[in-house]
Amino acid sequence: MKHSLTLQIGPATFRIGSAWRAPIDQLADLYAGYPDRRGAIADFTVRLQPTNMLRRWVRPSIFITGDHGLADAAPMSLPHGLLAAEMGMNLQMALGWRRHLLLHASSVERDGRVLVMTGESGSGKSTLAALLGERGWRLMGDEFALLDLDKGAILPFPRLVSLKNQAIGVVQHVVGAQRMGPLLRATAKGDIRHLVPRPDVVARMAQGAMPALLLFPRFGHAAAIRPVGQGEAFMRLTQASTNYVALGEAGFVALTRFVTGVPACAIDFPSGEAAFEMIDRLWDEGV
Amino acid sequence: MSAALLVRVLRNPAAAEHLDAAQWNALIAAAKAERLIATLAWRVEGVRLPDHVQPILRDARMDAEREARQALWEADRAAAALAPIGVRLVVLKGTAYAAAGLLAGQGRFIGDLDILVPRSAMPQVERALMAAGWEWVKEDAYDDAYYRKWMHELPPMIHVERDQMIDVHHTILPLTARPKPDADALLADAVPAGENVWTLSPEDRVIHAAAHMLADGDLQGGLRNLWDIHCLLEHVDPVALDRRAARHGLRRHVAQAQRLAGALYGGGGALTLWDRIVRARLLARDGWGRETRKLLVFAFYLRSHWLRMPPLMLARHLWTKWRKGHRPR
């Protein structure tokens, strides 16, 4: 394709091609601190291509596809090209990654142990991970936690952190504007702005660690903690995994090991401060 | 042209040793787009490969193995559903290759379960499958009527629990197509492949694959279909194949499939002008996995409709579909 870039995030390498320059330039800028993988053999190909020939030039419209694609994926406008590229990479991981059990979860590490947070979009898992990453934890990822199939470690997948709506201001207030990408207004999920992870996050993106606590956070409710049983955690994580079925027995074994070895709680929180207080308490009790 | 690179490596796996990173990216993208990545993985086994390629191919093989396992389980379930009405389960295409343990099944992605039953048994088969948990994918009166009147299969059904599709055929080409294969002969000469599962005879497997590729459809996935044919041809005697193809009215298609398989995957061979046009369509894929030669691809799309229907019927069909909001891709 006319413009392209190869990125490595955690264990996965992506070759991203685009009919337009802008999305590739934005990616190159925001991923400047990641390893240079120019010319590498990629695990996945991502394509940002015009929805039809006319839409390359006139009111440009991006169709996100690649090795794996969805025929009915909603087209995106060129100003949202960076988001399209991120979604393209997520799509490849979600549909094509087989080397770990993929959990739709954020993860952070401290003292060699990992806190995994899973929940629907809007649960606050990305925001919490981003903020914890500025409070002495190592950010491992805000979208996918990779569960090792043999040993049970969590491996990082630290792409840009995708922040939505009110979370943008909250995080920017903490980290400053230099580490933030362009503000993408009025996407399908509202306003979105990406956060560039700290340099040590990228430097250590090959280092996994054993999970110590699983949380199901829910933002916007009065503070509450409820222990979650192994059965419930298992069922909810099968729903939160895009490749659980594809991995077959290996996925079942890995997930069983995870839920039987890691304590789990659901936490409701009205604010970041309330969440940090609960997390600190649960972490000290559990670890 | 990366489809050409894919064909070259499938024909001669040793060529993979000398590829650079850019060629590997192109080869992998084309192989994934043509759903031949796991076949490629099997082919290059034993060849010295770059470190980063190995896990990609291992993943593909694992996916194909899972699909084969799932496909055989679906066949087992369908056989159980049809046992009470005394209809034996004849499976077609990917499931058949997996059930019979054929080279064509090695690394082949398998989508839906395709089965062949006598036309006279269709109503019982339909009822038996519905009783066992299969249901219609989508209700549309026009499509339903169209399938039942003109097609060689029932509208697709899906299993309510396992989410797997089944296509119930009573012959191998639409009733509107010009060749009229002998469906009774297909069933009469089916051969057992494991417990409760039957497949077409070796000759009929080739003929079905050739009919599917060249007498029906727009050559989407044609490289994989041709790879199937290339592998299936190893199990048949050319004279017996020709005689059988004549019986089904598909001699011309089978002969063309043999020429193309030889030219692309085998030891080469002479091609007619029409063969070359088909080959150009088959190789319309670039190193990013994109379809190229848009006009040629579209021409084959139009041809697929032409093959299926006489002109007046085609006009009526397209008009109805257009009003329903359907547009060619």
Would you give an account of this structure?
The complex is a heterodimer of chains A (287) and B (329). Chain A has 287 residues and is of the alpha+beta class. Chain A folds into two domains: 3-96, no CATH class; 100-286, no CATH class. Chain A is built from nine helices and 16 strands. Chain A has helices at residues 22-30, 81-96, 125-132, 166-175, 199-203, 230-239, 244-247, 249-261, 272-286; strands at residues 3-9, 12-18, 44-50, 61-66, 76-77, 100-110, 113-118, 138-141, 144-148, 154-155, 161-164, 184-187, 190-195, 210-219, 224-227, 264-269. In chain A, strands 6, 7, 8, 9, 10, 14, 15 and 16 form an eight-stranded mixed beta sheet that branches. A five-stranded mixed beta sheet of chain A has the order 1-2-3-4-5, with helices on one face. Chain A is globular, with a radius of gyration of 19 Å. Chain B is α/β, with parallel strands linked by helices. Chain B has one domain: Beta Polymerase, domain 2. In chain B, 54% of the residues lie in helices and 7% in strands. Chain B has 15 helices and seven strands. Chain B has a seven-stranded mixed beta sheet. In chain B, helix 1 crosses helix 2 (21-33) and helix 9 (202-214) packs antiparallel against helix 10. The chains are: A alpha+beta (287), B alpha/beta (329). Chain A binds chain B through residues 1, 13, 15, 17, 39-43, 45, 47, 49, 66-67, 96, 98-99, 246, 248, and chain B through 21-22, 24-25, 28-29, 32-33, 50, 52-53, 55-56, 59, 62-63, 66, 288-290.
List the helices and strands and how they pair.
The complex is a heterodimer of chains A (287) and B (329).
Chain A: E1 3-9, E2 12-18, H1 22-30, E3 44-50, E4 61-66, E5 76-77, H2 81-96, E6 100-110, E7 113-118, H3 125-132, E8 138-141, E9 144-148, E10 154-155, E11 161-164, H4 166-175, E12 184-187, E13 190-195, H5 199-203, E14 210-219, E15 224-227, H6 230-239, H7 244-247, H8 249-261, E16 264-269, H9 272-286
Parallel strand pairs in A: 2-3, 7-14, 14-16
Antiparallel strand pairs in A: 1-2, 3-4, 4-5, 6-7, 6-8, 6-9, 9-10, 11-13, 12-13, 15-16
Chain B: H1 2-11, H2 21-33, H3 37-43, H4 53-82, E1 89-91, H5 93-99, E2 113-116, H6 122-131, E3 134-136, H7 141-150, E4 157-159, E5 165-169, H8 183-188, E6 191-192, E7 197-199, H9 202-214, H10 222-232, H11 238-247, H12 251-264, H13 273-282, H14 294-308, H15 311-323
Parallel strand pairs in B: 1-7, 2-5
Antiparallel strand pairs in B: 1-2, 3-4, 4-5, 6-7
